Amino acid sequence: MPPKAPRGATRTGRRLRKTGGLLLSLLLTLLGLLLVTFIIGRVMPIDPVMKVVGERASPAQIEAARVAMGLDKPLIVQFFNYMGDVLRGDFGRSISTGHPVAEDLRRVFPATLELASLGTLIGVFVGIPLGVIAAANRGGWIDQVARVVALVGYSVPIFWLGLMGLLVFYGILGWVGGPGRQDIIYDGMVTTHTGLLLIDTLIAGDWGAFRDAFSHIILPASLLGYFSLAYISRMTRSFMLEQLSAEYITTARVKGLSESKVIWRHAFGNILVPLITVIALSFGSLLEGSVLTEIIFSWPGIGSYITKTLLAGDMNAVLGGTIVVGTCFVALNLLSDILYRVMDPRAQ
Amino acid sequence: MSFLKPSARAVLFATAVAFAPAAFAATPADTLVVAATIDDIISLDPGQSFEFSGNDVDQNLYDRLVDFDPLDLEKGFQPSLAESWEVSEDGKTITFTMREGVKFHSGNPVRAEDAAWSLQRAVKLDKSPVFILTQFGLTADNVEEMVKADGNKLSITMDKPYAESFVLNCLTANVGSIVDKELAMQHVEGDDLANTWLTTNDAGSGPFTLGAWKPNEAVQFIAFEDYWGGAPKLKRVIVKNVAESSSQRLQLEQGDIDVARNLSPTDVDAVAANDKLKIQDELRGRMVYMGMSQKDPILSNPAVIQAMHHLIDFEGMGNSFLKGQWRIHQNFLPEGYLGASDDNSWKFDVEAAKKILADAGVTSGTITTKIRDLPEYINIAQTLQAAMAEAGLTLNIEQMTGAQVLDAYRARQVPIFIGEWGPDYSDPQTNASAFALNPDNAAEKGSTIAWRNSYAVPQEMQDKVNAALLEPDSDKRKQMYIEIQKEFHDTAPIMPLFQRVEQVGMQKGVKDWSGGGSVAWVMYKQVSKGE
C-alpha cells in the first residue's frame, strides 16, 4: 500500500515518489541476485583453491591459499566482506585471469555491448516491419515467410548456424572478417575511448580500422540479430493482430482512411508501448552475452567470461559480471517502465 | 515515424559496407600469428605459473640458467644464462659461472645476484611449482644459506649429492626462470615478493618482451633485439585464443593465422590435404593412463590386474578415434626422456585374459570407472567395457565433470581411473616419483598417482627410484630407470596407455616450429616464415 499523498502534492511529486520506490525495489532485486549468485557459487562442487595451488600442492599450501582467499570464514561474513569491498569500488582480483576484475570487465563488457546493440538494431529494424506486414497480410505469403523465418530462428542451434555462416561468408565468399574483433594488423592501433571498436575507430578517423572492425562484427551481430528478429517479429505480429481487430480500426477504415495510414498511424502507434518492453527484454538477453556465439567467433565478451570463471569457482569475477549484467537488466526495466508511463496515455 | 530516418540511413550504409568484399591482409611477413586455446593462463609470474599456456609464455619471456635448444631437444639442457658449472667434491654443491654482458629487457645487467634472488624468491613464494626446487632440500628458512651469489658465481647447495642431470633438468623448468631483481623490487606490495605485479608483467631477459596479455583473448610478444643469443627471426608473435578447432582451421585456410595448435583429427585431415598448408607432428610429454585402485575388492587380486592388461585394445583405439593424436606407449617415462622405455609388449588378447581369470577362479564381477565426460574418455571406457564383458567382467561407467572426477580421485574413490598425466619438468624423476613412489600408503592424504590408486609400491622399487636420483653417471642412471619401468610395466596396477602427439597445422612457409617436444615448452625465437 503506497502511503496516502499529502494534500496539495503535485502529480510530479507522486510520480517521483513512485519512481523512487521503483528504484529501491530494483536495488533490492540486485542485492538478492548477488546473494543468490554468491550462495550458488559457494555450494557448487568446485574448489577454487585447487585451481590456484595446482595438483602437486602440499596440505599446508592448500590451507594457506584458503586463508589468503578468505574462504575459511563463514559464508555470511564472506558475503558482507565482499559487499563492503564493492561499495568501496573494489571488485577484487580474478583467480582465473590474474587481473583485477574491474579491468577484465572494462575489457569484456564493451565487446558484448557492441555486439548486443548491433544485434538488437538488426532485430528491431527488420523484425518490426516484418511483424507489421505479416499481421496486415494475415495468411498471405509474407506472413508465411515470416512464420518460417521465426520458426528457423527458434529451432536451429545457434552453434551450427554460426559455423555455417563462418564457412560461407568468411571461408568461401571472403565477404567478412573471421573470428575475433579485428585483424591483427589493426590490433592496438586505435586508442580506446569507449571500448566499442566501431566508435573508437570513427573517433580516430581510421577508415581502414573501422571497415575491419565492421567486417568482424557484422556476422555475429547478424546471427544474434536473426534470433532477436525472430522473437520481435512474432510479438509484433500478435500485438498488431490484436489492434487490427479492434473497433477503432474498423471505424477508421469506414471513415475511408488509407490502409497504410490505418496500419502505421493508428494501430502501430498503439503497440509501441508493449513493443518497448519486448525490445528491452531482447536487448537484455543479448547483454548477458551469448556464450556459444562468443565461443564460435572468439568474441571476448561477458558471457564466456562469466561461464569460464564460474567453472573455475572464481567468485570475484562471477559476482562482478553478475553486477554488470544485473545492473543492465535493472536499468532496462526502469527505462521501459519510464517510457511506458510517458507514452501510454492511460498511465498518466 | 521520423525517428526511423537517420537510423535507417545508417543501416543502409552499414549494409553497403558489409557486402563490399573486405580486403584481407595475410599476416604481416615479420609477424607469427598462432591460434591456440590459452584461457588457462592465470599468472605470468614464473614463480607461480604452472599451466600449459602460462609456461608457453614464460619460456619466451625469461631465460633460465640452462635451457633446451629448440632445434635439437635431444641434446638436453644447454648453457643459457649460466655458461658453465661444476660440481663440488662431495656432490652437494653446484657452482655456476654466469654469462657476462647479458641484459634484461629493462636494460639492467643479469647478475649472479639476480639468479640467486630468483630461486630464493620462488622457494619463499611457495606457489604451485615450488616442489620442483624444494626437492633439493631447499626450504623458505634455509634457502638464503643454500643458494648464494658471489661475484659472477652462483652456488646451490643441496641436502644430498643429487645427480647433476636431475638438478639441471629441474632448473630448465619455468620456476627456474631468472627474474630482474631490481625491476621486481620496485613493484613489491607488502610481503608479496612482487607476485601481483609479475602476474601481469614481464621482468625477463628472454628472446621476447611482453607486448600485451589480454586474458582469454591474446598474448602479444615483441622481439627483444638485444637478446644475448641474437635477435629472434621474427619481430612479433601473436597468440590468439581460438577455442574451436573448425574456427582455427578456417582462419588457417584464409591465411589469417600462421599456426593452429588445437585441430581435431577431421580438421587435421583437411589441412593436410590443402597444398598451401602442412601438418607437423610433434611428440609431447602428456600421457593417457589407467589406474586400478587396490582398494577395490576385485582389482586387488593380482590375477585380475594381469587379465586387465590383456583387455586394452591398443591397436583398435590407436587406429580409430585416437588416430594421429595419441600413440601407444606403455611405460611411465614418455619417449624423449632420459631412460624412457619402448617396451610395448602388452597385446590385446581376450582369450589370454579369460584363461588367467579362470585359473584364479574369478568368474564374474562389477567394477566402476568414473570418467570425465569428454568423447575420447567415453570411447576408451566403452572399448574397455566391451572387452571386459567378453571376459565375464562388468564395467560400470559413470560420467562427470573433470573437477568432480579429480575430487573423487584425490579422495581415492575411483576404482578405475582413466585420465591424463603431464610431466612437470624434464627429468625422469617427475614421473618416477608420481607413478612409482608411495612412501605411506596408509596416509590420510597423498599426492602421487600410486597413492591415489592405493598401490603399495614394492619397497625395492621405491629404493631404486630414490637411488637413481643420486646416481652421478647418466648412463647408469638411464639403465636404472629402464629396469624400474620393466617391473612397473609387467606388474603395476597402473598402466600408461598412450603418449600425446600434437598435430600442428601451419602455413607451408613456417619453418622451425617447436612446441618443446616432450621435455619443454613452445619456443618462438628460431621460427621464421618463408614465402
Description:
The complex is a heterodimer of chains A (348) and B (531). Chain A has 14 helices and no strands. With 348 residues, chain A is mostly helical. Chain B is of the alpha+beta class and 531 residues long. Chain B folds into 2 domains: 6-257 and 508-529, Periplasmic binding protein-like II (D-Maltodextrin-Binding Protein, domain 2, 3-Layer(aba) Sandwich), CATH 3.40.190.10; 283-501, Dipeptide-binding Protein, Domain 3 (Dipeptide-binding Protein, domain 3, Roll), CATH 3.10.105. Chain B has helices at residues 4-19, 52-61, 112-125, 131-134, 143-146, 164-171, 181-185, 195-200, 245-254, 265-272, 302-309, 314-318, 350-359, 375-390, 402-410, 429-435, 449-452, 459-468, 474-491; strands at residues 31-36, 66-67, 78-79, 82-87, 93-98, 147-150, 153-157, 208-214, 218-223, 236-241, 259-260, 277-292, 326-328, 366-372, 394-400, 416-421, 494-507, 510-511, 528-529. In chain B, strands 1, 8, 9, 10, 11, 12, 13, 16 and 17 form a 9-stranded mixed beta sheet that branches. In chain B, helix 11 packs antiparallel against helix 13 (350-359) and helix 18 packs antiparallel against helix 19. Chain B is globular. The relative contact order of chain B is 0.15. The chains are: A mainly alpha (348), B alpha+beta (531). The interface between A and B is large, with 60 and 60 residues.
Task: Produce the secondary structure layout.
The complex is a heterodimer of chains A (348) and B (531).
Chain A: H1 11-43, H2 48-53, H3 59-68, H4 75-87, H5 101-136, H6 141-155, H7 158-172, H8 197-204, H9 207-244, H10 247-254, H11 259-287, H12 291-296, H13 302-311, H14 315-343
Helix pairs in contact in A: 1-14, 5-6, 5-9, 5-11, 5-14, 6-9, 8-9, 9-11, 11-14, 13-14
Chain B: H1 4-19, E1 31-36, H2 52-61, E2 66-67, E3 78-79, E4 82-87, E5 93-98, H3 112-125, H4 131-134, H5 143-146, E6 147-150, E7 153-157, H6 164-171, H7 181-185, H8 195-200, E8 208-214, E9 218-223, E10 236-241, H9 245-254, E11 259-260, H10 265-272, E12 277-292, H11 302-309, H12 314-318, E13 326-328, H13 350-359, E14 366-372, H14 375-390, E15 394-400, H15 402-410, E16 416-421, H16 429-435, H17 449-452, H18 459-468, H19 474-491, E17 494-507, E18 510-511, E19 528-529
Parallel strand pairs in B: 1-10, 1-11, 14-15
Antiparallel strand pairs in B: 2-3, 4-5, 5-7, 6-7, 8-9, 9-10, 11-17, 12-16, 12-17, 13-17, 18-19
